[in-house]
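quick one before i forget lol
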Amino acid sequence: MSARDAQKLAYDKDLDLVKIAPQAKPPVCRIMDYGKYCFEQQKREKEARKNQKVVAIKEIRMFSAIDTHDFETKVNQAKKFLTGGDKLKVSVRFRKRAIAHPQIGEELLEKFKDACSAVGTVEKPAKMEGRSMVMFISPKTSK
């Protein structure tokens, strides 16, 4: 059908003539209500955004000299974050002369990693950043 005939047919039906595949030989067109099509497309995109899961990065800070009960509290909080689907940034801050002993922080993060191994896996291992040592843990995928 010629473009002129198709345009006249669309005009008679009070609809729009929309090119579906303009690069094809001959171009493929469709007669439809373009405004309604755009509205439905936006509605589908909005629904897709609504179902999208945003992963937040939660942070847990500890000091190199932490007591056992405080450590257990931090581990329980971390498990709660990881089961909720959030990533976790665990940092050990060093005060004053404690920075001279980074192995204490490494041991603490290793202990933390072992305590959270049931619900999370280490994404980035422990690394010094200024006066703190940082490790990233991501939740285990349940498939």
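fyi The chain has two domains: 3-50, 57-139.
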